[in-house]
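Worked example 2:
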Amino acid sequence: MTKTTGFELTRRRALQMMGLAGAAAFASTTLGHSVARAAGTDQEGRVIIAFTGEPTVFNPHKPHIEADEAVHAALYDTLVEIDEKGEYHPVLAETVPTIENGGISADGLNWTIKLRDGVKWHDGKPFTAEDVKFNIELLVNPDFASWRKTGHELVRDLKVVSPTELTFRLERPYAPYAAILASTPIIPKHAYDGITNLNEAPFDQSPIGTGPFKWKNRIAGDHVELEANTEYFGDGPHLKGAIFKYIPDFSVFYTQFKTGDYDLVGIQYLMPDVYEEARTLADKKVELVGNGYVESISLNMKKPQFQDPKVREALYLAVDKGGIIDALYYGTMRPTESFMPQESFYYNPDLPKHEFNIAKANEILDAAGWAKGGDGVRAKDGVRLAFTNSTTAGNNLREQTQQFLQQTFKEIGVEMTISNLPPAVMWGDYWLKSEFDSVIVGLNVMTGADPECSDYYKSTSSPATGGVGQNTWVYANPKVDELLVKGAELNDAAERLAIYREIQSEIRKDLPFLPLFQYQAVRGYKNGLEGIRYNINSRSDTWNIREWRWAKG
């Protein structure tokens, strides 16, 4: 790696900074002990799952983050699910609809879904095809703040044939729809009886599902507690309850893992600098696990600072990606140029490789007319190359990454101000409605094992411009829009491969975000907790929580 800057942050210095930050955070943080002390670890029944992000959205059809999905997976069921091998299995559906079994017509347009009989909601009312119909219609209702319309908006002639069967047709072939159904939890129609404002239903804070666990209580800022659904239709649950514990500081997060205050590391991870120690803990199972999340510096493309592609190119050249991975993450992360997991069939291995080159970045900005002012900050046409960068307050690794970026960006005449926020604020409207300048964030944009990613990259999927989806970059590329539509209409994997590789190439060229690495996270749980299956095709480790159990004896 060519380094053309005198700035060099050694691992020792990085660790010193992290240690000081962690010590200060630990001294000032008392949050995180109340549930553990009161409940302890009940190996005959409950499991305590810890997160550094707080679950706050319990209606799975509203905009939410991954920590919310961990709770959703315990409360609700989907029609079908995708396992860690990419294979589909029925859940609320009696069988997975396919062309071979007649559930899908040969042209992929007509669908018949047969449901399990005898399934009940947590309040005892029967689950029927009317509930499924209601969910699909709610997700595309313009009066509802939906987190996803993609795929569902193609459904036509949706009919309930019987309490256990419904049919519909798709407006056009759409290969990812099975994967979308696998990530669409089903909520009860009757929870909205008499509700005039779909966005303010009591259900949102008193959720009812068919899942293996049901709602018990929530202490905002501390934890969510669920109890076993003893009437669950499937095998399980094998636990009496599940507690989702919020521990915002990573130092406290690890300390409480060591002392046994919780049982399983949730969606977030233990910091890489503790990996060697953690893997020696006698009563813990700790391992390095790859997943579908990609860490990036995400840019808000509606901000004038980022609209010049030469600026985005120069910023990427000024990112010391190798230094960040080596010094802060102990080399555990895999550098990437794509949003697509490297394990995916659709991953493009031929994207241009990142180069850390301060001199080249300066040359590009000079040539593009971004001139340095008396304060050393570049400007052009009245726009200064100055912006804020935000992430979750207390995430020490990202905070150290920000210090790397701040130093190297300064060397190319760019002023980056660090402005971090509590998780509930950071990942609320600030992120979802594109109120930020730039953000360090980890995202999994795949639809299970399917490469469909219209929710994130289609120009009509940006809430900031009146769309529905997760395109918080406010990214718009007509060619990508066209390719996304085409890729979703094809069923042949080889034909889709070329399209999704081209999509990756376009996005790598446009750089609405600066990719850093694909996660290999330090995950862990207590010995004796069985049934944990890490699934790269799911955004939540609790996807199969109904199978979890404590070993006897």
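Residues 1-43 have pLDDT under 50 and may be disordered. The longest strand covers residues 284-299.
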